[in-house]
Amino acid sequence: MARLEVVQEKIRALKAAQAETDEKLKHLEQAILDKAFRGEL
C-alpha cells in the first residue's frame, strides 16, 4: 500500500509541475508575440 501512495504522490507532483510549466509557457508565448509586434525581434 505504501508503494501505491508514493506513486500517487509522484503523479500529483508531476501534474503540479506540468500545470506550472504550462502557465509559464503561456506567459512566454505572449511576451514573444508582444516583442514581435513591437518590432523588437
Automatic annotation (TrEMBL):
Coiled-coil region list: 4-31
Keyword vocabulary terms for this entry: Coiled coil, DNA-binding, Endonuclease, Hydrolase, Nuclease, Restriction system
GO molecular function terms noted in the UniProt entry: DNA binding; endonuclease activity
Name listed for the protein in its UniProt record: Restriction endonuclease S subunit
Alphabetical GO biological process terms: DNA restriction-modification system
Top-level taxon of the source organism: Archaea
UniProt entry tagged with the keyword Cell wall biogenesis/degradation: no
